[in-house]
Amino acid sequence: MDKPKVVLGVSGGIAAYKACELLRRLTESGHDVQVVPTAAALHFVGEATWSALSGHRAATEVWETVHEVPHVRIGQQAELVVVAPATADLLAKAAHGLADDLLTNTLLTARCPVVFAPAMHTEMWENPATRENVATLRRRGAVVIEPAVGRLTGADTGKGRLPDPEEIFEVCRRVLARGPLPADLAGRHVVISAGGTREPLDPVRYLGNRSSGRQGYALARTAVARGARVTLVAANSELPDPAGADVVRVGTAVQLREAVLKAAADADAVVMAAAVADFRPAHYAAGKIKKQEGQEPAPVELVRNPDVLAELSAERARPGQVVVGFAAETDDVLAHGRAKLARKGCDLLVVNEVGERKTFGSTENEAVVLAADGEETPVPHGPKEALADVVWDLVVRRLP
Ligand code: CTP
């Protein structure tokens, strides 16, 4: 089978160096990548780097190999065009159909999905001209990823950073697999909890679990792609922030409860993907617990944590709010899942089987989604994004 043909457009911003990492991810995962930098981009990263990493000569102008008609051919043959970084200038040209170099010509001839990953200063991103250009591109079906918040080129910080290359790669992979997704969560606010809580025993020790946060992050990423405003309550995950989501970091179950309930007040849906500790140590030692020579260790006394999912389900913050839980089970998976769905009172329960090598830390997942109305949706083994999309499909159908 031919490798999927991806065009990586690079426009002239300092974040061009991060596009090298995106290029590597694309080529290493089996894509044939043609890099099309703008002349300005070459001030930041030279042609030699793009050619060496992609295995193709990286052309900037339409005049370089005119007999091959590159200004039409590259766009026509592409299965995906991703522009990272996309500057304010490039977005403006794309929105208005200008074509004064090879990249803008390629954007005009491409019939495939197009992804823009903008990077610019906050003022430029917030300028009404840029806002309208982004709206125009989105209306025409392009995927414009929200920039990340953080350190910008100088000493300043704000919205406008290029999202992490891994995040851009995930968006590309999804768009290649499913095409641009429907914006069926536009105007909705969704809250997702992810990761695993840590319940401290003393300043250096805690009771925790092996949840990586990957499934919750995939839910956040896919919800952003479907147009939702997303609040991600992340417990101890080391994953990069999903582009376009508001991330609230928490440590313990009690902190997670507070953050989730606050965000849920105006949410259309809440998905509890976090592994919340059922118990926490009854006593927290302000100083490190020391072993005593010749003495047995003192038993750890535990107390119950609040059950956030049960609480959300029992006291819906808004009428019609859809509440989704997750259940990790090791045996008799479906029977335990059905009982848990009834006990917790949520609308949907994603049940997956866990074991030594299953689910935790993995990028893949397999599950059955049980609904309170009796519907059962098996989701075959696949990327966590695929399961996330099934969850959102089921949520969308239940929204008022
Ligand atoms: N959950 C929660 N608050 C807790 C514990 C769990 O909100 N204190 C949520 C999780 O986020 C998940 C779901 O409940 O969505 C399932 O949690 P799980 O621990 O598997 O269920 P339990 O009711 O604790 O059942 P058991 O321990 O008997 O398997």
TrEMBL record:
Task: Tell me the cofactors it needs.
Answer: FMN; Mg(2+)
Q: Which GO terms describe its molecular function?
A: phosphopantothenate--cysteine ligase activity; phosphopantothenoylcysteine decarboxylase activity
Q: Name one Pfam family in it.
A: Flavoprotein
- Catalytic function, reaction form: (R)-4'-phosphopantothenate + L-cysteine + CTP = N-[(R)-4-phosphopantothenoyl]-L-cysteine + CMP + diphosphate + H(+); N-[(R)-4-phosphopantothenoyl]-L-cysteine + H(+) = (R)-4'-phosphopantetheine + CO2
| Cofactor binding note of this UniProt entry | Binds 1 FMN per subunit.
Enzyme Commission designation: 4.1.1.36, 6.3.2.5
- Region listing for Phosphopantothenate--cysteine ligase, in residue ranges: 190-400
> Which residue ranges does the record annotate as region Phosphopantothenoylcysteine decarboxylase?
1-189
Q: Which residues does the UniProt record annotate as the domain Flavoprotein? A: 5-174
Q: List the pathway annotation.
A: Cofactor biosynthesis; coenzyme A biosynthesis; CoA from (R)-pantothenate: step 3/5; Cofactor biosynthesis; coenzyme A biosynthesis; CoA from (R)-pantothenate: step 2/5
Q: Which residues form the signal peptide?
A: none
Keywords carried by this UniProt record: Decarboxylase, Flavoprotein, FMN, Ligase, Lyase, Magnesium, Metal-binding, Multifunctional enzyme
Which residues are noted in the entry as CTP-binding? D278, K288, P306, D307, V308, L309, F326, K340, K344
KW Metal-binding (keyword) present? yes
DNA/pantothenate metabolism flavoprotein C-terminal domain boundaries: 185-396
- What role is this protein assigned? Catalyzes two steps in the biosynthesis of coenzyme A. In the first step cysteine is conjugated to 4'-phosphopantothenate to form 4-phosphopantothenoylcysteine, in the latter compound is decarboxylated to form 4'-phosphopantotheine. Catalyzes two sequential steps in the biosynthesis of coenzyme A. In the first step cysteine is conjugated to 4'-phosphopantothenate to form 4-phosphopantothenoylcysteine. In the second step the latter compound is decarboxylated to form 4'-phosphopantotheine.
Q: According to its UniProt record, which protein family does this protein belong to?
A: In the C-terminal section; belongs to the PPC synthetase family.
Protein name as catalogued: Coenzyme A biosynthesis bifunctional protein CoaBC
Which species is this UniProt entry from?
Answer: Streptomyces orinoci (Streptoverticillium orinoci)
